[in-house]
DNA sequence: CGTTTTTGACCGGCGC
DNA sequence: GCGCCGGTCAAAAACG
């Protein structure tokens, strides 16, 4: 995104929020080559001239898309700030009544012996659902105040359901390009996942796999992975909740570099060959990942030329925008850089500085 | 032998 | 109330 944004007068904020310029060398590859899966096409010699033209066209298109994303991002950031201040007020107001327990109860809620059959679980279920999903609001974007509100409202009965509906764990969707021949529903995102179920859903012949974060037993994050009904080369990963821990310690730079150094991390899915284009796609606050995600989505959008319908493309695009916005606004460093850059820019443009 | 995956059964929500 | 459906459990199997 960098080159275009920096060239826009309205957006030339010279933001340096960690996006490595080196990642640019990857982008044209993913953009120019529409990620054709057929190997015979893959082996065709590149024709330079049309390639350049296609590149330029693609670049323009991406530029336009980036502009929209940037606008969306600005809007989201503004909304985020508004929500944050709102939340701060709520916390300040509700701090006296709801101090503590809800945020500390997430650890025990996922005990292995949890059983739904037992009727007593109803008691815990009444208290748990709202609170357990939001362990920490550290990264922002979620609804930490919601748990408290939930509990408060639950006493009155009906509003509980609606509020719980609104305060569901943050859900983010991710579209990852996957080899159709690879039947495993594995989306490598740097975390360790344990599959706990698989189900064939009504609207999609492809089974949906359910994963839990296995790195931290108390981690509330869940992941659903299912192939897109429109294009089975696309894996749709739906993340619910947020990790209450960092990335798994081994191979800290797995995604920024090549991932070949992953020892225990890769051991989670050893059989799967490393696929840089499909790996590292998690809504975590790492800019390279974001860039990677964009490549993935772009690749997914242009798979084989046109297999993904316009509606699907639109959907993917929208999700990409949401995801980027979420990822960026969740990143404190990005926010800090944004604030710094914006304030600096505003001061700079202000005719009456003094 | 410990961990992960598979898979059928179960549970609860929701629409009719 | 009933049936459908998505999500989860947990025993068994597979794997390293």
UniProtKB/TrEMBL annotation:
Gene3D superfamilies recorded: WRKY domain
Keyword Transcription regulation in record: yes
Main localization, broad class: nucleus
One Pfam family per UniProt: WRKY
GO terms, biological process: response to other organism
Any one GO MF annotation of this record: DNA-binding transcription factor activity
Subcellular location: Nucleus
Domain of life of the native organism: Eukaryota
Biased composition (Polar residues): 253-265
Protein's recorded name: WRKY transcription factor 40
Top-level taxonomy: Eukaryota, Viridiplantae, Streptophyta, Embryophyta, Tracheophyta
